[in-house]
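Protein modeling request. Please complete all fields; requests missing the sequence field cannot be processed.
Requester role: graduate student
Desired output: 3D structure, token encoding
Chains: 1
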Amino acid sequence: MIKVPADAGEISPEWITEALKTNGLIRSRVTQVEAQTVGQGVGLMAELTRLSVSYADEEDIPSSMIAKCAARNENRGVAQLLDFYNRETNFYNKIGGAHCPFRVPTSYFGQVEDSTYDMILLLEDLGDVSPVDQLVGSTEAEAFDKIERIAKLHAMYWNRTGDPGNAWMYDFMSVEEGVKLRDLVYGPGLEPAIEKFSSHFNSETKQVCRQVGKRYVDLMGLVSPSYTFLHGDYRQDNFIYHNESGEVVIMDWQISGAGHGIFDVTYFICQSLQPELRRQIEKPLIERYVALLKQYGVDDYEFDTAWHDYRLLILFCLIYPITVCGSLDTANERGRMLGATMLDRNLTAVEELGCAEFLK
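Delivered output (360 residues):
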């Protein structure tokens, strides 16, 4: 274990030499490193810095990479409470590109300092890429593509999260986790979210959100008992495309872990699709998800069960916009717009799909 830098400013040539040699990625040493902040106004839970690295001799590893470090604002407390940084570094160290059925950034080094909760990931610099704006929303073609990709990952780990080799997977849908999320995340964020974004609520949706807080743990127990490995934050902002090849890369694995597979699908649909498009394709998307699971060998999950779980988990998904709107630092304008958009789409789905019936 080497000392994790508190931020990108502490990444010296000596440090990055040691980090890259840990995984046998370089033979010589780093002679110079230059840092440039990237992604301002986009992320909420970490800081991104582009590193330009010079080596003493020719190396196979690129000379440009991205350093992902712990957030230096109040969002860090939420990250530590829910162990976001270990969850993401574990994904890259345990699954990463070698055991994932779709493209993710290559990871060169990842570590969390337990005593300080400092974190660093050295990731592939994807270069000429375009993010997909969640505020604009997914197209129909993009939506079906994302369901195709996540279904394959879910099938790989379906009912295998309890295997000895998967003990590292963070169980974020257990009763214990539900109590933590209710009492330390959703509850504290709820009334501030209603106050700060009052124009986005009506009397009925306020009541629904308050009831979700009271019934949060009970609701989790109503989901069908199928577990797999989840992305956890499967939304439009976390997909990027190479401008030349069009290749899709799935980013940001901080909320990954063991849970109900349909959650990734639900979260994507209710918070990354414009309401008009969601109404048109939500059932076909879930039908396609179930069909893909069967194609990949999962034969114990039918459409009726998936539709029930989808409607139920739309309530569970409220924790994301409530947290963003009520608890997190949204000082940048885009952060505030993202919270409002997620909230509006989620609440619209709650109303239109009659999800409040689960609260009776």
